[in-house]
Amino acid sequence: MITRYTRPAMGKIWDEHNKFSIWLEIEVLACEAQANLGVIPQEAVNIIREKASFNIDRIAEIEAEVKHDVIAFLTSVGEFVGPDSRFIHLGMTSSDVLDTSLAVQMKQSGELLLHDLEELRDVLARRAKEFKMTVMIGRSHGVHAEPTTFGLKLALWFDESRRNIVRLKNAIATISVGQVSGAVGTFEHLSPKVEEYVCEKLGLQPAPVSTQVLQRDRHAEFMTTLAVIGSSLEKIATEIRHLQRTEVLEAEEYFSKGQKGSSAMPHKRNPITCERIAGLSRVLRGNAQAALENVALWHERDITHSSVERIVVPDSCILLDYMLSLTTDVIDKLLVYPENMRRNLEATHGLVYSQPVMLTLTKKGMAREDAYRIVQQSAMQVWRSKQNFREVIGTNPEVIALLSPEDIDQAFDPSKGLTNVDYIFQRVGL
Question: Which residues have a catalytic role annotated?
Answer without folding.
Answer: 141, 262
